[in-house]
C-alpha cells in the first residue's frame, strides 16, 4: 500500500489525509478538521467572470502539471486547454490526465514546441515554468510559475506553500492574480 495522491489543492489534500490515515490505521477526522483553506469559498464568491471558464494552459513537472490541472478545473472552474510536461518518466500519467480534460498531451523537452502550442491555443492564463513565464510575457498572456525550473524572483519573501490546505489558498491567490490584474 502506498499513498498515491499529491496533496496539491483542496480536494487532493483531503484525499491525501484520508489515504495516510488509512495506512496508519487512524481516524482521518482530526486531520480533516484542521482544514484552514479558503479556496472553496473564494472560488464560489469571486466574480465568475474573473474565473469561470477561463482558458488555461498548464506545463511543467508532470506531477505539478497534473495536480494543477485538477485544481484549475475542479476547484477554480478554469477550462484546461493544454497540458504538458518536460519529463517523459510520467508520460503515461500525463496522457491519462490530458484525456480527462479532452486535450492533446504535450510531452517534450523543446520549449519552442511549448511556445508554438501556447501561441496556437491563446489561453488566458499559463501555469508553467520559468520558460513559460517568458513565453507568456512575449505573447501578452498572464502566467504563474508552478514548477521547476524556476529562478529566485519567482519565490515570494513570505510563507507560501503549494501543498496542503494553506497551499490551496496560495494557489488560488497566485493563479487568480494575473487574471484580475
Can you walk through the features of this model?
The chain has nine helices and five strands, in the order H-H-H-H-E-H-E-H-E-H-E-H-E-H. Helix 1 runs antiparallel to helix 9, helix 5 runs parallel beside helix 6 and helix 7 (111-121) crosses helix 8. The mean pLDDT is 90. The longest helix is centred in the C-terminal third of the chain and has 17 residues, at 164-180. The chain is α/β, with parallel strands linked by helices and 181 residues long. Helix content is 52%, strand content 13%. The protein has a five-stranded parallel sheet, with helices on both faces.
Topology:
Layout: H1 10-24, H2 29-33, H3 39-45, H4 48-51, E1 55-60, H5 62-76, E2 79-85, H6 91-101, E3 105-107, H7 111-121, E4 125-128, H8 130-139, E5 142-145, H9 164-180
- Unreliable runs, pLDDT <50, ≥5 residues? none
Mean pLDDT: 90
Q: Tell me the overall shape.
A: globular
Rg from Cα: 16 Å
Note the total helix count: 9
Helix content: 40-55%
Task: Tally the beta strands.
Answer: 5
Which structural class should the secondary elements be placed in? alpha/beta
N to C succession of SSEs: HHHHEHEHEHEHEH
Share of β-strand residues = 5-15%
Span of the ends, CA to CA: 45 Å
Tell me about the largest β-sheet: 5 strands, parallel
Q: Major sheet: order of its strands?
A: 3-2-1-4-5
Amino acid at each position: 500500500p502506498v499513498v498515491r495522491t499529491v496533496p496539491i489543492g483542496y480536494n487532493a489534500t483531503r484525499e491525501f489525509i484520508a489515504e495516510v490515515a488509512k495506512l496508519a490505521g487512524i481516524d482521518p477526522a482530526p486531520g480533516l478538521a484542521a482544514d484552514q483553506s479558503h479556496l472553496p469559498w473564494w472560488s464560489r464568491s469571486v466574480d465568475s467572470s474573473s474565473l469561470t471558464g477561463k482558458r488555461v494552459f498548464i506545463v511543467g513537472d508532470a506531477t505539478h502539471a497534473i495536480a494543477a490541472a485538477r485544481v484549475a478545473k475542479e476547484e477554480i472552474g478554469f477550462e484546461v486547454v493544454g497540458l504538458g510536461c518536460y519529463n517523459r518518466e510520467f508520460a503515461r500519467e500525463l496522457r491519462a490526465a490530458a484525456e480527462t480534460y479532452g486535450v492533446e498531451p504535450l510531452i517534450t523537452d523543446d520549449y519552442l514546441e511549448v511556445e508554438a502550442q501556447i501561441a496556437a491555443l491563446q489561453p488566458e492564463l499559463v501555469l508553467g515554468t520559468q520558460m513559460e513565464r517568458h513565453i507568456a510575457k512575449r505573447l501578452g498572456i498572464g502566467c504563474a510559475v508552478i514548477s521547476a525550473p524556476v529562478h529566485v524572483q519567482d519565490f515570494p519573501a513570505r510563507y507560501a506553500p503549494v501543498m496542503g490546505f494553506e497551499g490551496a489558498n496560495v494557489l488560488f491567490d497566485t493563479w487568480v492574480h494575473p487574471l484580475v490584474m
